[in-house]
Amino acid sequence: MTIADGQGPVRESAVGGSGAEGRSLRRAARGSILTLTGSAVAAVAGFALTLAITRLSSQDQAGLFFSATSLFLLAIGLARLGTQTSLVYFISRGRSRGRPDLARPYMRTAALPVLLVSVLVGLGLFVGAEALGRWLSPEMSADFARWMRVLAVAVPVAAVANLALAGTQGLGTMKALALVEQVGRPLGQLLLVGVVLVWLGDPGLLPTAWAIVYVPVAAIAWWWWHRLARPAPTEDVGATVRSLTRPFWAFSTPRALAAVTQTAMQRFDIVLVGALAGLAEAAIYTAATRFLVLGQIAGRALSLSIQPLLGEALARHDRAVARSLYQVVTAWLVLGTWPLYLVFINHASWALEIFGDGYSEAAPALVLLSCVMLVATACGMVDMVLNMAGRSLWNLLNVVVAFGVNLGLDLWLIPQWGFMGAAIGWAAAITTNNLLPLAQVAREPGIHPFGRQTLSAMGTATLLFGVLPAVASAVAGNGHGVSLAVLCLAAALYAVALVLARRHWHLTLLVTAVRRRRRSRREGPPGT
Predict the structure, then answer these.
(1) Taking phi first (over 0 means left), then psi (-120 to 50 degrees means alpha), and beta for anything else, what does residue 356 get?
(2) Domain residue spans in the chain?
(3) pLDDT-derived band of residue 310, with 50, 70 and 90 as boundaries?
């Protein structure tokens, strides 16, 4: 199949062929299947957790939980100092150049600063909990302070888990991330939170139940990393670490600021809504944004699996392979997410009713954010491409600009419009944070996501899940029965389209990856 970039064919690469592009796509497919499964479990468990919180507690208690955990995740984003991307970047580059033994020195380079900063951040949250409660949750300031002290203790533990899982990604395996972080942690949190709400009936234990899961996650992740990492070079390890420190932190420093700013864009608006409009508004806004997490299942899975592959391709200056990976994986991303976002656009109120009374008023926010996510997913994993091209400073500038847009609009609009003001601010930030890097990667390294596969995927999803429901609504009305029937018809036609165009979209690679994984599980390791 010819992978096109809008300027003519790049290279002939048959599906399952032996070229570099074919090998990279097959590796991306195998990694994507595993991380897609893990991301699906994580997203469903996270959605179920949100559902349990909104159904089994008051809106104020739900808003308190979402605000406190959002601040905790902001603290984690600060404490990891951008080392998640950096470890994947440098360890994968070392592997592509025949130096997998540098993995442990790179980990040593990252670990001490991360541990130090995470302890300081956790201590700051613990000491400043009362002041944070008065500022961010004036309605329930004492409860907020008590919850933050519990969560503060878990900050260094979560930082250790992040380090170890990033190291295993750099070593070329997605298993640790999928099983430990994407499956084990969210399911454990859902189980313990359910015990607290259903059996014990004590919402005050929610932060303890949610945070304690990070302890076994960190222990298992660190064990997995040590099992995979080769011994350090035979020469002086200290000298090796010193030689790696400067380039590592030159890359990581802007990435750290970018990571904190990105996390702030995703989470700080929830905290601001609680502080400026009330905890009930924060709960309603969080419920609307949880649907976007479901749509991000495919994006997270594909991004995690392609990240080391793009790093290797760009390290070899193989632009053709990088472009092919970017375009085909973006087509997979569109195929997996656009139908869901289009359904949310057409049936926002219906979807939000699942959270209980009062939550359907967030329908305009869900419609707006779903429209913006269509644009974001069409750009693919553009910020990750920019990072893997070594342009972490550009990424930092993009994220700072986007966060400035987000924060400015939030402070202006939330006091007047509540959660809808936060939705407008986040929508503007998402748009900015995708279009800026899209223009930059088109210039250097000279790739873009809009190949034939991406454009046809966008058209197919829009026709079946956008145009068809709109026509049916105009003809037969907006009843639940009509909507459900049209949705089933669209899904059936979509499945037919996926089968008929499977080679065009390289979906056969994903099918082959599933079959190989199943066969590997049945046969077991060699010698069994």
Answers:
(1) left
(2) 2-6+17-520
(3) low
